[in-house]
């Protein structure tokens, strides 16, 4: 029984602890169709754990998770490509798992590879032959290839350089607008959150509780650099975001 | 606390590839296989050069110490060719081969299975490790004595000795391979809803193989050696039995010929069987090498 009829994903009063140490308690989340929610917070606040619980990779110790969709995909912080498969087979991995025929999944993989900016000749290469940015593009293509209803992004672009990060963010925004999937986007970069998301949830490092939730004005993709910069600049002076920018304060707390 | 799983089903409809496309891809695979085979044979020249260096050293030893201590390589080969005419070589070789291969298959099978279980289960590892250490600690020669008492002068003694002497190698390889599997990749596969079997096949097994092949190579090598040793001591025929006879006759070229034969078997099983399989399954590894994948 879903508490919210139209929601794709609902987390209700979820709490978790690792080895007896409580990370967060009483976390609620409602993910609506086509909505991108950014989860920001300093490292160690439990945002990755929340994502893993939402994606079904970790069983929560407390609370309920309701899912109302056919399939999801996860883009991890690292590409997590299988080193023994070519780029084509890596992108098609999720399709293969769900029993899609070889010729069809290869065709889909080739199409997705082009969308994320890979060259056709990259398809026969192994992950070691690709650059770090290319690998992360392949990981994004692999997630999009299964036509997910919900995508979980776990700080996906932390390891790529600033320029490429912009390209990959735009790619995610465009894909979300086109395929109309819902997404939970975990990041510690406020500018990234403001760029890609409809809504923002801020977690505290101290006890993992939600410090603030706010709607970001305008649709993702329509905000220009100036607007994003202004939002980040004005928010960074507020107390709720202080932890994100102030490492000293986090340590003393 | 309950967690509802994403509703299954609704997969992408399966479509069959068209016949000409299949034929073309089969043809391409055949060409690739032939190309690979040619390259593998060609790379054998380097190995042959190494073996000929060894033969040169052998020849030098022969010239220093004379025929009685060390017969010349050519003389040995001639004796071996002479043996090929008679019936005893085929009989002895097939006996030894059967024992060594049975022992290898049992040792590799049991060792790999037990090692994989130990790799997955910490409790099983804690229980099995000391057992394997004890078995490894008993010298093979002691196993032969025990096996002789249990089996008498039959092939069973040789097979048992091979299994006990060499399964710990496969055990250790499988244990290490499974224990060092990449859990991050496993989580990735789980995020796509892959079953435990699919995850084992696509994530754990390819990683495991890189630990298993060296272990299996060592196992097959020691299988030949231990078989011959057990045959010699238990007087149960095979190449070991022939070696014992040749030694009793002080026929040194004959002793060398049998030794060469065993070494040839060991070379064939490693370079003719295990290595080609390894190359086929681990093609991706050469992608990381400076010269890249040879396509």
Please name the defining characteristics of this protein.
heterodimer; A: 253 residues; Rossmann fold; 6-stranded mixed β-sheet; 9 strands; 36% helix; globular; B: 295 residues; mainly alpha; MetI-like fold; 10 helices; 80% helix; MetI-like_sf (chain B); transport (chain B); transmembrane helix (chain B); NitT/TauT family transport system permease protein (chain B)
Task: Walk me through what this model shows.
- Chain B: It is found in: Cell membrane.
- Chain B: This is NitT/TauT family transport system permease protein.
- Chain B: Belongs to the binding-protein-dependent transport system permease family.
- With 253 residues, chain A is an alpha/beta fold.
- Chain A is built from ten helices and nine strands.
- In chain A, the strands form two sheets. In chain A, strands 5-6-7-3-8-9 form a six-stranded mixed beta sheet, with helices on both faces. A three-stranded antiparallel beta sheet of chain A has the order 2-1-4, covered by helices on one side.
- By secondary structure, chain B is mostly helical.
- Chain B has a single domain (72-280), classed as MetI-like fold (Orthogonal Bundle), CATH 1.10.3720.10.
- Chain B is built from ten helices and no strands.
- The longest helix of chain B is centred in the first third of the chain and has 47 residues, at 19-65.
């Amino acid at each position: 029984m879903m508490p919210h009829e139209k929601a794709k994903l609902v987390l209700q009063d979820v709490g978790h602890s690792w080895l007896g140490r409580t990370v967060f308690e009483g976390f609620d989340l409602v993910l609506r169709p086509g909505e991108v929610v950014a989860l920001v917070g300093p490292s160690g606040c439990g945002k990755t754990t929340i994502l893993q619980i939402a994606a079904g990779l970790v069983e929560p110790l407390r609370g309920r998770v309701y899912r109302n969709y056919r399939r999801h995909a996860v883009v991890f912080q690292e590409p997590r490509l299988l080193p023994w498969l070519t780029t084509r087979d890596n992108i098609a991995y999720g399709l293969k798992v769900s029993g899609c025929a070889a010729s069809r999944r290869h065709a889909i993989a080739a199409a997705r590879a082009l969308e994320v900016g890979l060259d056709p000749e990259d398809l026969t290469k192994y992950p070691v032959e690709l650059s770090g940015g290319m690998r992360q593009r392949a990981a994004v293509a692999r997630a999009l290839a299964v036509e997910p209803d919900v995508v979980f992004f776990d700080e996906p672009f932390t390891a790529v350089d600033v320029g490429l990060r912009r390209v990959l963010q735009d790619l995610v925004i465009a894909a979300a607008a086109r395929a109309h999937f819902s997404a939970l986007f975990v990041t510690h970069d406020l500018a990234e959150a403001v760029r890609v998301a409809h809504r923002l949830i801020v977690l505290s490092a101290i006890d993992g509780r939600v410090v603030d939730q706010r709607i970001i004005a305008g649709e993702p993709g329509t905000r220009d650099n100036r607007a994003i910069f202004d939002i980040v600049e004005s928010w960074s002076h507020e107390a709720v975001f202080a932890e994100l920018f102030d490492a000293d304060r986090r340590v003393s707390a | 606390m309950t967690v509802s799983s994403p509703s299954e089903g609704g997969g992408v409809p399966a479509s069959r590839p068209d016949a000409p496309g299949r034929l073309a891809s089969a043809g391409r695979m055949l060409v690739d296989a032939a190309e690979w085979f040619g390259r593998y044979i060609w790379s054998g020249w380097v190995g042959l050069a190494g073996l000929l260096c060894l033969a040169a050293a052998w020849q030098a030893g022969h010239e220093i110490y004379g025929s009685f201590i060390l017969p010349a390589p050519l003389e040995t080969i001639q004796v071996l060719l002479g043996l090929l005419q008679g019936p005893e070589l085929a009989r002895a070789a097939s006996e030894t081969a059967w024992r060594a291969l049975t022992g290898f298959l049992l040792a590799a099978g049991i060792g790999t299975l037990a090692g994989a279980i130990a790799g997955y289960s910490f409790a099983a590892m804690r229980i099995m490790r000391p057992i394997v250490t004890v078995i490894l600690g008993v010298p093979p020669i002691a196993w032969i004595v025990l096996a002789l008492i249990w089996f008498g002068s039959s092939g069973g003694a040789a097979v048992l000795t091979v299994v006990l002497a060499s399964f710990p190698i496969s055990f250790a390889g499988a244990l290490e391979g499974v224990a060092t599997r990449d859990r991050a990749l496993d989580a990735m596969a789980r995020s796509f809803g892959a079953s435990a079997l699919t995850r084992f096949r696509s994530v754990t097994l390819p990683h495991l193989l890189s630990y298993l092949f060296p272990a299996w190579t060592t196992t097959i090598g020691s299988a030949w050696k231990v078989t011959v040793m057990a045959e010699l001591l238990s007087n149960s025929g095979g190449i070991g039995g022939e070696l014992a006879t040749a030694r009793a006759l002080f026929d040194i070229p004959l002793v060398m010929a049998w030794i060469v034969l065993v070494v040839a078997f060991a070379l064939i099983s490693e370079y003719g069987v295990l290595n080609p399989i390894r190359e086929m399954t681990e093609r991706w590894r050469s992608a990381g090498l400076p010269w890249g994948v040879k396509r």
